[in-house]
Design goal:
The complex is a heterodimer of chains A (115) and B (118). Chain A is 0% helix and 51% strand. By secondary structure, chain A is mainly β. The interface between A and B is medium-sized, with 27 and 33 residues.
Chain lengths: 115, 118
């Protein structure tokens, strides 16, 4: 059974600071990793995807992947009140020949940016 | 216009009623998915489809059925709704990446349908 674990929070971070969100996954052969942001009552919105070990940066967001440790994280620099949301970690195992049989989601971390 | 649309956006129904939730997409993706989201349980996969002839059960398919009418349309049905099917339902799409490179498996979500079963 594939599992994705996240601390549910809430994680409270002062405005302008770095928010660090963490995620672990159980399946060693997972190949694709995602961070989605979800505001209350809204649909998940893709923030970052990462496929290889190391760091990937996009604006204020940095995703970090360590497949050996089965760990993926998201850093948000210069946190803004608008970053307050639930952040979902999602993982997929690739099927032979490529393709997606659906993402397994963590339950999400509720992030609060304090003005 | 939104790339992935869902109808209805809100629905209140009674126990035992049949209900259909519809999803349409203009992204040209072959793959479509239905998820439900419950407080404290996160997003869970109900059914997924790789094309109109390929439909697969997800983690929690009992009590649900689906129909892939066309590449762009994927419907979820509750044949006899029960209160514990009260949830937020999301449709999602993704494209096929044979080389599993950047972008592979990325899913894009519709706005959701809030379903209440009384």
């Amino acid at each position: 059974q594939k599992e994705v674990e996240q601390n549910s929070g809430p994680l409270s971070v002062p405005e302008g600071a770095i928010a660090s969100l963490n995620c672990t996954y159980s399946d060693r052969v997972s190949q694709s990793f995602f961070w989605y942001r979800q505001y209350s009552g809204k649909s998940p919105e893709l923030i970052m995807s990462i496929y290889s070990n190391g760091d990937k940066e996009d604006g204020r967001f940095t995703a970090q992947l360590n497949k050996a440790s089965q760990y993926v994280s998201l850093l948000i620099r210069d946190s803004q009140p608008s970053d307050s949301a639930t952040y979902l970690c999602a993982v997929n195992i690739g099927r032979s020949g490529g393709g997606a049989d659906g993402l397994t989601f963590g339950k999400g971390t509720h992030l609060i940016i304090q003005p | 216009d939104a790339d992935v649309t869902q109808t209805p956006r809100n629905r209140i129904t009674k126990t035992g009623k049949r209900i259909m939730l519809e999803c349409s997409q203009t992204k040209g993706h072959d793959r479509m998915y239905w998820y439900r989201q419950d407080p404290g349980l996160g997003l869970r996969l109900i059914y997924y489809s790789f094309d109109v002839k390929d439909i697969n059960k997800g983690e929690i398919s009992d009590g649900y059925s689906v129909s892939r009418q066309a590449q762009a349309k994927f419907s979820l049905s509750l044949e006899s709704a029960i209160p514990n099917q009260t949830a937020l339902y999301f449709c999602a799409t993704s494209d096929f990446f044979g080389d599993r490179g950047e972008g592979a498996d990325t899913q894009y979500f519709g706005p959701g349908t809030r379903l209440t079963v009384l």
